[in-house]
Amino acid sequence: MVGKKSTSAGKASAERTASKKVAVKPVAAKKVVAKKVAVRKVAAKKVAANKAPARKVAAKKTPAKRVAARAAPRKAGAESVQTVSAARRIDARIESLGDWRGERLAEIRKLIHQVDPEVIEEWKWMGTPVWSHEGMYVLANAHKDKVKLTFFHGARLADHGRLFNAGLGGNKWRAIDYRQGDKLDKGALKALLREAVAFNTANAVPRSKSSRA
């Protein structure tokens, strides 16, 4: 009888131990899973933290590129192409007029080049010939009954030949209106053009942007 009791007691003890082990395994498994989840979260946070500064740096670089692009000087080749294109458009404009206005515009243009061999011809405002030297100094428009020659800084010029006859009330611009039959005083006009170029050179007038071809 004693042997049977001890055997029963041993079995009971073994069953308790086994049940404890079974109970321990789920707990240990839960702890392992929890640790893995925690490790993944920490790793994800580190990756996100590392990626965030990279986006900020990329955002900071964009303005620098834009500033560099704005500060880049204009290429001489592109400028010469624009000048040639403007000259061709002025040629076409003179030819298209086909009357005394085209002839007068051609005469004025010839005098400008004689006075200022380094002049830059431009085509602005949807069809206006402009001449520049350290900035714009004169433009010409062919109207229905006249050719208007406008000086950008005419109010600052002496105009010894007294050619200005339009826009006299302004504080900056002055103009000469040529009508059919009017005489072109070449000497006085050349003197006025020289004065305009000298004014721009002395006052370092900012150079205008050439119109696109």
Automatic annotation (TrEMBL):
<feature type="domain" description="YdhG-like">
    <location>
        <begin position="101"/>
        <end position="197"/>
    </location>
</feature>
<feature type="region of interest" description="Disordered">
    <location>
        <begin position="1"/>
        <end position="21"/>
    </location>
</feature>
<dbReference type="InterPro" id="IPR014922">
    <property type="entry name" value="YdhG-like"/>
</dbReference>
<dbReference type="Pfam" id="PF08818">
    <property type="entry name" value="DUF1801"/>
</dbReference>
<feature type="compositionally biased region" description="Polar residues">
    <location>
        <begin position="1"/>
        <end position="10"/>
    </location>
</feature>
<protein>
    <submittedName>
        <fullName>DUF1801 domain-containing protein</fullName>
    </submittedName>
</protein>
